[in-house]
Write a structure and sequence with these properties.
about 300 residues; alpha+beta; Chondroitinase Ac, Chain A, domain 3; four-stranded mixed β-sheet; four-stranded antiparallel β-sheet; 7 helices; 15 strands
């Protein structure tokens, strides 16, 4: 499978493997040399094979997850359109590439954007990158280096400033602004404004756990109302089970899960969809497809 253990995967696994609590993610960054001229899938396969020959682990697609290392990039036959938009028009902004519709690869290193989606470590081939955007190199082996991203979102960001947007295109434009700091500001659809009239307070403490198809989030705010941005892709099919006073689950920062609550919260979010009434959430998700297509055309 091209997914053996190596000193690199052992380093990452020790810090990121799930013990129910979520500790963040790692991703491998592709070389940008030929992305504008050649299909990305061929470059990815070449890079994966090179990584495997050099280290025993391809470090792309599912190779890191086979070593219990969570990643933010995605490889699915039916890749979520909203996450694909978020990844290609925000995470990898500025890179011209001939991409495949059923995968996302890390092509650019914008530290604050990777931190937002919980990426703590980026792996790079030394021959392609002698340094990585001012990030601290924390491990090297076999011609590869691991770089650390500070303050990655592993337990929820709690912005206190909100910006509202009428369309997905406008949401992404606000997020791509040089002034946008996802630790302090969140971008929310205009339709959510009525639920966000009170001032927001930062988190005092928080924890994210993952078990099978469920996320568990527990937190205490520093004031009467808090919005937590979790590093997981949003869907209407997340079904909350509140332990105590209920809050509200909403789409934040284009494609991520937001949890709005008063004072303290304990919630289990389980992803579930099915047939008949169980498919309603998928229809609700699909309602955003036209807006996502417009955003993809408007933004490169």
């Amino acid at each position: 499978m091209g997914a053996d253990a190596s000193p690199i995967t052992l380093f990452l696994k020790e810090r990121l493997a799930l013990d129910s609590q979520f500790h963040g993610r790692a991703d491998f960054v592709l070389s940008q040399d030929r992305l504008a001229a050649e299909p990305e899938v061929g470059i990815m396969v070449e890079e994966r094979n090179r990584n495997f020959r050099a280290t025993g682990n391809g470090m792309l697609l599912r190779a890191l997850p086979f070593q219990d290392i969570p990643v933010a990039s995605s490889y699915e036959q039916a890749l979520d359109y909203l996450y694909y938009l978020f990844w290609t028009r925000y995470v990898n902004e500025g890179v011209r590439a001939h991409r495949s519709i059923n995968m996302t690869n890390l092509e650019a290193v914008h530290a604050d954007r990777l931190a937002l989606i919980g990426v703590r470590y980026v792996v790079a081939r030394d021959a392609a990158y002698s340094a990585l955007g001012g990030l601290r190199r924390v491990f090297s082996w076999g011609g590869y280096s691991v770089y650390e991203i500070a303050n990655a979102n592993a337990s929820g960001y709690s912005p206190t400033k909100l910006s509202f947007a009428e369309t997905l295109s406008d949401e992404l434009r606000l997020m791509r602004s040089a002034h946008f700091d996802p630790r302090r500001e969140a971008v929310v659809a205009e339709s959510e404004r009525e639920f966000l009239t009170l001032a927001l307070s930062p988190l005092r403490s928080s924890k994210v756990s993952v078990l099978r198809q469920s996320l568990y989030f527990e937190a205490i705010g520093r004031g009467p109302r808090t919005l937590a941005v979790l590093p997981f892709k949003f869907s209407q099919c997340w079904r909350p089970r509140w332990i105590g006073p209920p809050g509200r689950v909403l789409r934040v920062d284009g494609a991520l899960v937001g949890v709005l609550f008063d004072e303290a919260v304990r919630v289990r979010l389980s992803w579930s969809a099915g047939y008949a009434w169980g498919a309603r959430c998928l229809v609700e998700d699909a309602n955003l497809v036209p807006a996502a297509v417009d955003a993809a055309k408007a933004l490169q």
